[in-house]
Amino acid sequence: MSTRIVSLKGIIIVAALVPLLAGAAAVPFELKSVTVELPDSTRMFEGAGADAANNNCLACHSASMVLAQPPLSKAVWEKVVHKMIDTYKAPVAPEDVAAIVDYLAAGPR
Amino acid sequence: MAETGRPDHMISRRRMLGSAGALVALSSPSWATALGKVVLESRPWAPEITTAFPQKGPMLLQRTRPPLLETPWDVFDKSVFTPNDQFYVRWHWAVIPTSIDADSYKLNVHGHVNAELSLSLRDIVRDFETVELAAVNQCSGNSRAFFEPQVPGAEWGNGAMGNALWRGVRLKDVLDRAGVKGGAAAVRLRGLDEPVVADAPHFMKSLAVDHARDGEVMIAYASNGAQLPLLNGFPLRLVVPGWYSTYWIKMLSDIEVLDKPDDNYWMKTAYKVPDTPHANMIPGEKDVPMVPISRMVPRSFVTNLASGAKVPAGKAVSVRGIAFGGDCGVATIDVSVDGGKTWQPARLGKDEGRYGFRQWNTDVAFAAQGKHAVMVRCTNTDGVSQPATPNWNPGGYMRNVIETTELVAV
Question: What is the predicted ipTM?
Answer without folding.
Answer: 0.86
